[in-house]
Design a protein that fits this description.
The chain is mostly helical and about 575 residues long. It contains 20 helices and two strands.
């Protein structure tokens, strides 16, 4: 199989030499900025609303433009990087992200801020798949790559979790634009470092790039994510504003898949989905985010509106989750090697479900020890699951398709997050609203308004005042906790379904028989005579992609000393 490193680039970083860990630092800082920008704005919304006075629709686009555009363009820029060079796309993303950050920080009107958020989404879509696909090229040895992916996923968790804390600090001490301004000095440093240190890599460039297919994928993902987000904020599923983008997006994605199957040089080789490990890994990412992202938003409301914590205190309460995720990422490589992808992802799901069920014990009063234990188990279990799924997915993809595979993984993450907000938000609303009917002394119109959200219920209760207001306040608080418990149980069920899905993953971590010379001893547990186990190096495997279970490079070997399959079979032990 052809190497993905362009001739003439720096051999040490490209081939896995000493510079590869420096390259990983640059890639992780890139990802940190993108992950921070996804959540850092949330606590700045009241401040920028008072300053710019956007309409409700404009405010919605200020918040949603970045994740919507980023999700829509991941496949486009991931596959473009495979064609023209991932480093080139990444560096362009750096420049655009920095310029858009300056525009957002200095915006004098909502229209300018929305445009800046769109550009930030474009820059984020250029950066995210490029970081993962360059990581795939720089770390050809699966064991080292597993360590690198563990660090990469931990950084993503840190960025998303610390965004509200950092945003709250900046808004409290400066102004809302400072949440964007912090990107500029970091980009000013990382852009020249990226040009100096990052190796160029690309996939096969056979045939023309499918521009029409890339646009179909972008508009299709945008329609699906937009429809899901509308459903998640309370829009009726059959309402035209929700149903139309969902149907259009789904239709375009189906046409995109058909087009890719028929083209001789597709953007994404759909034969990847014939590999059970790849398809299962993508499904596990979707299901993990489906179960947990909506739950995270509800948990933030619980901490602030039920327990009465400030935004900064809420962020600090979530720090144990972040530290646990970092620990899971740091130990993920050794865990994966020791117990294999199937048990790592499956038990990660089970641990996360157990943490979610433990949090059912939360009530209307603060229980900090319970919350801390639950968040630690939640962070460790979730990060273990995502680590195993991402590593298996990326290792199943051939090096020349790394950009497309990374884009599929990131798109799955975004789709799962959007569907989780919609699904768990709907479950929460269905369990919360009935408790506000027939509250003594509260008019029907006030009860209906209070059923929209807990924050709205508190506002209506303050307006009513007296015994009726106090009764509505208590009923809303009680109903929210009841709804939270129902949502936790539903989330745990989804996570346990993910544990069953993980049974289709390989039982042991496998390693390619072909490695660069400086990685010859990387897989210490492998038999010394590779040909005796897997047949002659370079022997073609059966099937269009080297067999359904075959690895991305040549034959594959189990890390454990188990009975080998017949020589030349090229199939992994599962």
């Amino acid at each position: 199989m052809a190497r993905t490193i362009t001739a003439g680039t720096r051999p040490r970083a490209a081939g896995g030499g000493t510079n590869r860990w420096v390259v990983l630092v640059v890639l992780c800082v890139s990802l940190l900025l993108v992950a921070l920008d996804a959540t850092v704005l949330h606590v700045a919304v009241p401040s920028l609303t008072a300053d710019l006075r956007p309409s409700s629709t404009q405010l919605l686009w200020v918040v949603d433009a970045y994740p919507l555009v980023c999700a829509a363009l991941l496949i486009l820029f991931g596959t473009l990087g495979d064609r023209i060079g991932r480093r080139r796309v990444l560096l362009l993303g750096y420049g655009l992200f920095g310029a858009a950050s300056a525009l957002a920080a200095l915006a004098t009107g909502p229209e300018v801020l929305i445009a800046a958020r769109v550009l930030l989404g474009v820059g984020g879509a250029m950066i995210m798949p490029a970081t993962l696909s360059i990581l795939r090229a720089v770390f050809p040895d699966r064991r080292e790559r597993a360590t690198a992916i563990g660090i990469w996923t931990a950084v993503a968790a840190v960025g998303a979790a610390t965004g509200p804390v950092l945003g709250g600090f900046l808004v409290e001490h400066f102004w809302w634009g400072s949440v964007f301004l912090i990107n500029i000095p970091l980009m000013a440093v990382i852009l020249p470092l990226g040009r100096l240190l990052l190796p160029e890599s690309r996939g096969r460039a056979d045939g023309p790039w499918d521009v029409l297919g890339a646009l179909m994928a972008a508009v299709g993902v945008l329609g699906v994510v937009l429809g899901v987000k509308r459903a998640g904020v309370g829009e009726a599923l059959l309402a035209p504003a929700t149903l139309a983008p969902l149907l259009l997006g789904a239709a375009l994605l189906m046409l995109f898949v058909r087009r890719q199957k028929r083209r001789p040089h597709p953007l994404i080789d759909m034969r990847l989905f014939r590999r059970p490990a790849f398809t299962t890994s993508v499904g596990c990412v979707v299901l993990a985010m489906l179960a947990l992202v909506g739950l995270q938003l509800i948990a933030v409301q619980y901490l602030q509106l039920v327990l009465g914590l400030s935004p900064l205190e809420t962020g600090l309460r979530l720090l144990p989750l972040t530290f646990a995720a970092m620990a899971a990422g740091a130990t993920g490589s050794s865990t994966l090697h020791r117990i294999g992808p199937r048990r790592m992802v499956g038990w990660g799901f089970v641990l996360t479900a157990s943490a979610v069920l433990l949090l059912v014990l939360m009530g209307q009063h603060d229980r900090p020890v319970l919350l801390t234990v639950g968040f630690v188990l939640l962070g460790f279990g979730l990060q273990t699951t995502l680590f195993g799924a991402y590593e298996s997915m990326l290792s199943e993809a051939p090096p020349e398709s790394a950009g497309g595979a990374a884009a599929i993984g990131e798109t799955s993450y975004q789709l799962g997050a959007g569907m989780g907000i919609a699904l768990l938000g709907s479950v929460m609303n269905a369990a919360y609203a009935p408790g506000l009917h027939d509250v003594p002394g509260v008019p029907a119109a006030a009860s209906e308004a209070a059923a929209n959200s807990l924050g709205e219920a508190y506002r209506v209760a303050d307006q009513l005042g007296g015994a009726a207001g106090a009764a509505l306040h208590d009923a809303a608080r009680h109903s929210f906790v009841t709804g939270l418990h129902v949502t936790l149980v539903v989330s745990a069920g989804l996570l346990l379904a993910g544990a069953l899905m993980a049974l289709r993953l390989p039982r042991v971590m496998e390693c390619p028989a072909e490695l660069p010379d400086d990685h010859a001893d990387a897989c210490a547990d492998e038999p010394k005579d590779a040909e005796a186990v897997a047949g002659p190096v370079g022997e073609p495997d059966a099937g269009p992609l080297g067999g359904q279970d075959a690895g991305p490079v040549g034959a594959r070997l189990p890390h454990r000393r188990e009975p080998a399959e017949p020589a030349g079979s090229g199939r992994a032990a599962h």
